[in-house]
């Protein structure tokens, strides 16, 4: 990696970079094809712009209201805001953009290496573009913060190299602006000024304080402020604190050694990559736990000794470890709760290893015939691309993601819980209960799993079993709004309305912008005869979530029971528009239309309800009553007999 000249090599012509970008886009699209049709995963809903932030006022909040978004990354969330304007809630647009950003970063990486006269620039870019360790960053929509920040990070580095050549203020301003934008996309880019110093030392063999260090001092200041702010944000707002994060300095040092070798190993041998890795136990009293740290110290000493001959290896090592520094374990980040490592943590750091690999492979194969050399060098990216294609398949949907994760890491309690949520949404509640029970066996103090288990038991008609789980969830986490809401539902199912209403009210105390709790409180109030109060909560639920069909239905039914059907009908229609295949909506609308004397319209809705679920006895019964009113006795008798066959308890006057 030793440069042939202290001055940078000429930048490649625009067309060559353009052709490389086009080739990398096609290769990445092929490698990531299985994930392109995938949906939203895990916390994507915390990144894709929420409804209340989709206006110009919401964009203002993204920039100037701490806590308006899951993390204070305003450039990232502004990008998501713009993307939602273009393709709305379609996951495909987000996936395609992530692939394009990844290919763009790989192209910038090649251009950067060429400017630094590092051999094997295109090979290094191919390795980065197609390596399976990048799948988590590219196939997971939330990790657009990785791909977008990498583009800005590399653009800032390229702009800095231009400034380093001509020392023009305009180039410095551009580089600084790009660096600040990178920081506001993801704070791990704070390592860039240190990386630039390493590059300057590698190129010239020394650092000049005035030339190299002083211009970067403002960058270090901004980077330090951003890092401290993010660390505070992680602890106080995201929850990266408590017993699970209580590691002493010595333990964190041992953890850093193990993390370093883990990431290096996964780059060298990318098999059994996981979405959630097992969480290690760090024991300073065990000699085995010291070995990774000691090996790291030996490696550093060897690289320092070798740097007297050639600085490339030490530079690559410093860039890799330095870029990893924010996630080596010295700072708390929320994912440490379930694993100390994640593939997306080394997205930027891996660039140093790929640069070294590209240059090293080119040198090792230099003696081979030209054709054989090119064919041999092409096999490695091709093989990595195949593994990436296989790895991308697990990101097609949440169920595939978590089932694959559990097959590779059965101890992943978070995966059990998240799989249960996905199964519940798919209507597979019995299976979800099994996974929640497994999550609680692995982590007995898991409040979220207790709450989800209680909710699913209520869905299965077992509220008496649900209540103890929900009460335990609240003992573990008293301000848990979802658990308060779920407890309210269980109490309603038990017929304990007076006890349920305070649960919903408490849920809204802790989480005022909670549409589901507003809707559930409204239902409880309506059954208790407090219709006007109920209507206010239904209206609030719809205000918070305009596409909330169940809240529209509840609002419509509440107005109908108050003898205000003309006001109710627009809400019925909106509910039908949102969920045209919903049996409860069609059935309730049909009954309301019949009560308002709109027999033809009621007949249409009830017939749709019967078509949607021929086993729904109540729909047959209401249809029979309506047909009898219309004098269509033979049809009415058929529907009545069908209703009785499905539910003999419906027998009564017609």
TL;DR of this structure?
It is elongated and about 100 Å long. It is 69% helix and 0% strand.
Folded structure, characterized:
With 654 residues, the protein is mainly α. Among the domains are: 14-48 and 89-395, no CATH class; 412-512, Serine Threonine Protein Phosphatase 5, Tetratricopeptide repeat. The protein has helices at 14-31, 33-36, 56-64, 74-87, 91-115, 121-130, 135-139, 144-166, 169-183, 192-204, 209-213, 217-238, 249-268, 291-306, 312-324, 350-364, 370-392, 398-408, 413-425, 429-442, 447-459, 463-476, 481-493, 497-510, 515-527, 531-544, 549-561, 565-578, 583-595, 599-612, 617-629, 633-646. It is elongated, with a radius of gyration of 30 Å.
What share of residues is helical? 55-70%
Low-confidence stretches: 1-15
Q: Whole-number radius of gyration?
A: 30 Å
Q: What do the pLDDT scores average to?
A: 92
Q: Total strand count, please?
A: 0
Distance between the termini: 90 Å
Instruction: Name the shape in a single word.
Output: elongated
Number of helices: 32
Largest sheet properties? none
Share of residues in strands: under 5%
The assigned structural class equals mainly alpha
Based on the model shown, name its key terms.
Serine Threonine Protein Phosphatase 5, Tetratricopeptide repeat; disordered N terminus; 32 helices; 654 residues; single chain; mainly alpha
Write the topology of this structure.
Layout: H1 14-31, H2 33-36, H3 56-64, H4 74-87, H5 91-115, H6 121-130, H7 135-139, H8 144-166, H9 169-183, H10 192-204, H11 209-213, H12 217-238, H13 249-268, H14 291-306, H15 312-324, H16 350-364, H17 370-392, H18 398-408, H19 413-425, H20 429-442, H21 447-459, H22 463-476, H23 481-493, H24 497-510, H25 515-527, H26 531-544, H27 549-561, H28 565-578, H29 583-595, H30 599-612, H31 617-629, H32 633-646
Helix pairs in contact: 1-5, 1-6, 1-17, 5-6, 5-8, 6-16, 6-17, 8-9, 9-12, 10-15, 13-14, 15-16, 18-19, 19-20, 19-21, 20-21, 21-22, 21-23, 22-23, 23-24, 23-25, 24-25, 25-26, 25-27, 26-27, 27-28, 27-29, 28-29, 29-30, 30-31, 31-32
